[in-house]
Target: FAD-binding domain-containing protein
Amino acid sequence: MTRLYVQLSSTDGEKVDKRMATPEYVMHRAVEAMRPFNLRWKTIEWFGNYVVGQRAARHFADDENRVFIAGDAGHCHSALAAQGANTSMHDSFNLAWKINLVVRGLANRRILRTYEDERRKIAKDLISFDAKHCEAFAQGDDALARNFDENIRFISGVGAEYSPGPLTLETQVVSGLRPGALMVPARVVRYIDANPVDIQIDIPLLGFLQTVCEKVDSGLKELNGLAQQSYQKRPRGWAKKDELLQPQRYTSVSHFLTFALVTRSSRSLFEVVDLPDVLQKSRWTLYLDELDNPTCTEKWMGDVKSSQAGIAIVRPDGYAGGMGCWTVEQGEQAAQWTQDYFQICRCI
Model:
C-alpha cells in the first residue's frame, strides 16, 4: 500500500476550491507529477483532504498535573515530514516514565510539571519548522531540498532538544551528545557474547532511569531499596516481546536504573570477575568500544583522557539527562554528582 500527498493547486501557488478535490483530480495530479514514470491504481483504500495549519495548545496539563494531553491534542501541523506519530510517541514516553516514578513513590509529583515544560517546547519548535517546511514545499523541489538540508537534525529527531532544566543538566563536556537531546547512535561490542550492537537501543526502555558510565561507580541504596519494594508489590507488566528482551538481565542490580560500562580496554586485559560487584551483576551491559571511528566514547564524551572516566545519565525516554568527566582521583565527586541528579528527580 502506498500513501500519496498531493498539493491541491492547478498551478504552483494557486489555491483550489476544496470541492474540486475529488479522487479523479488527485490521481490526475499524481500521474502528472510522476512523469516520465507510470502510476496506476487498483483500489483506493482511503481519500481525504485537509487545510494545512499549525497550532499548539497553551498548556499540556492542568494546574494540578492530573490531566494531560499528548499527540495531536497538543499540536497540529502538516503531515509532510512524518513528524506527527514520532512527536506523539515521544510525548507519551516523556509522560509515562515520570508517572511511573510518581506512582511507585520514587519521585515527587512535582516532576510531572516538567512534562509541559519539555514537550510544549518541542511542539513550538515543530510548529515553527512545519510552517517553513510547507512554504518550501509550495516553492518547489529546490526550496524543499534546502529546507531538508537545513533541518535534518530536527527531522531525524536528534535535533528535538529540551532546554536546560532540572532533568537536563548543563555540562562542560564538548561532544556530539548534549543533555536534553536523544542519544547519539554508536556501535559497540557487547562483552558477554561478542555481538556488535547499537548501544543507544540495546538496553530496553523498561520505565526506569539508566546510567551509562565509563569507569565510575556510585551508590544509590535508598532509591534502589524503594524501587525493589515497589516492584515486588506491583510487578512490571509482561509482554510477548519480553521472551526476546529478557528484562531480568537489566534489573539484576536495581529496578530503578541500569548500570552499564563502556570501555576502550582490550578484552584480553580483564575478566568480568575483575570488575566491581555492581558491574559483575550487569554483565549484559558491559561493552567494548572498538567498532566505530569516532568511537562511542568520543561521540558521547568527547576527548576523554586515559586518566579520566565519564558518566552519561540516560533517561527512560532515551534523552541524555546529564554528563560529565572526572579523573580517577575524583571518583567521590562523580558519585556525588550522580546521587545529586537522582535526588533532584525525587524532590523536584
User: Anything to note?
Assistant: The first strand starts at residue 55 and ends at 56.
